[in-house]
Amino acid sequence: MSGWKRDLPIGLVVLAALIAAPAFGLPRFWITTVTVFFIWATVVSQWNLVFGVAGIFSLAQMAIFAIGGYTTAMMGLYLEWSLWLALPVSGLLAVVFGAVVGLACLRLTGAYVALLTLAIAYILFLLIVTDTDCVYYEGTVCRSLTEGWKGLGRYGDYGFRDLFGRDFHLGNYGLALAVLTLATLFSFAIVRSPMGLAFRALRDNPGYAVSRGVSRFKYQLLVFALSAFFTGLAGSVYAGVFSVIGPNVLQLGLLLFLLSMMVVGGVGRPWGPLIGAALLMLVDETLKEEAFAGYRNIGLGLILAAVVVLLPQGLAGGIDNLARRLARRGGGAPGE
Amino acid sequence: MDTAVQIVVSGLTLGAMYAVGTIGLSLVWGALRMLNMAHGVLIAIGGYFSYQAIDGWGLPMPVALLVAMLAGAAMGALIYFCAARFMFRNEAFENNIFIVTFGLAIALENGILKVFGGYPLAQPFSLDGGFRIGGVYVPWQNVLIVVVSVAVMVVMAQFLAKTRMGRAIRATAQNRDAALLMGVPIGAVFAQVLAIAGSLAALSGVLLSSITTLSPQVGFDPMLKAFIICVIAGLGNVIGALYAAFAMGLFEAAIQFFLGVRFALPLMLLIVIAALIWRPYGVFGKKQVTRL
Lengths: 336, 292
Prior knowledge:
The complex is a heterodimer of chains A (336) and B (292). With 336 residues, chain A is mainly alpha-helical. Chain A folds into two domains: 2-250, no CATH class; 255-336, no CATH class. Chain A has 14 helices and four strands. In chain A, strands 1-2 form a two-stranded antiparallel ribbon. In chain A, strands 3-4 form a two-stranded antiparallel sheet. A two-stranded antiparallel sheet of chain B has the order 1-2. The mean pLDDT of chain B is 83. The interface between A and B is large, with 42 and 44 residues.
């Protein structure tokens, strides 16, 4: 397939560069930032399957992410499991949750799906934030199941501190990179499989697709469940890397940030999420500088709005168009 | 008995405010097929302009209300001229405008934060005192809210039913292409609808912040509730939205009383989810048959 012929070499070069980067003395601050980029890029690449490839306007991705993260944290804290054991369990629970969300949205289309999934995410947020009922006492300190605003902590990490000592952040970097690599391969494989064709058929012309025997029920559940797995894993990695997880992962600002990554990169384009995530992380780091203090969210919001209005196919779409135009001009040159 | 009166009083107040906020959202959806995620920030803008007009510029309350509504209308029109105008012919308009207004909302909200700070402010648009029904104290503020809301709704209904502009809006909502062919200037209608919706949102923001407090995020919960009401009524169904708004207000007051504030919004959202699964086109909506 010509797609793989182009994408595999590019992917391998990028992967090699990312593996080599710490060895060539990438500063510790940037290693941590890039680790965060890996986590968000994983989420966005899976969200892109639902939102871009299947065309379902779901905003539940961060809720699925939170389910993964909280599952890992609670297993570590209450069952005292190793996080390595909690990792796959988090992914599977996220799949179950994703499938339920998909089931709830089954009969809805367009904006109604967006509202329903936003409502689900917000319920989760409200229930966590207002959770103050004590489940156990630590001395005289009341501890609630999710610890409300504060979030859960003290459930351990992926053991890189014992393994690498001071350089534990390299372990986090590697783990997040591994998850991102698998997630990206997974999303490319899905897009180019017959299943991806069915997703796109249902997106582009649902009536025709259904009358040709493509089951909406089956494929909508599939895309929600499949895209939830790596999202849940990303949540679990996040919980392990930061050693704390709170309701802030469900806040609108973060949802908007990730949505911007997808939209800026190019909705429905396989490379879109990675390009968008990398660019938005850079913009975000720039806006965090003191000169822009307080303008971070204003900038992000305006960038998002401007890109949708001016460049509706995103950067990946823009690059594709440019390449096509150049190729046409190059091909036409001898005749002129 | 007192409990029932209490629930009815606060339920009607809430319902009246929700109704004003919801009509705007419902009109915009009906005419433009656009979910306006900036609705919440328009609510906040109304509240802050009224605050600024009364406390900052020393204007009397009715004028401040007008200032707030004008500011909301200007913001609504701005959304049309800066974003929607370039997009509504596009096929993916429904999804794209959602994202654009989402982005604008975050930017504007943080703009307010920058100008006024995040510290909650008291809305000066309020009346002191009250009266008693049996053992229940009814503040004049609640009466004011209900009266202003009902007055605005009556004016809106007359406007939509009787005026040329109202007829153009209804025609566009019913069938955009047919309206265009009959010579209705679609662009102007869209701008008007967004301006009207903006001023209604601003008005509901003034009323709402008068019984809570004013903060940059003040509009988010009401926006979600307005969406809930729209969805239950069927998006774009203005009359259904009015009934649903009052039903929701009473329902919320009852839940707050019996189960506590914590569960009010989650339960309402759960009801919406159930309603959407049971009747995807809204409780008052009609099932649409699409020809392929």
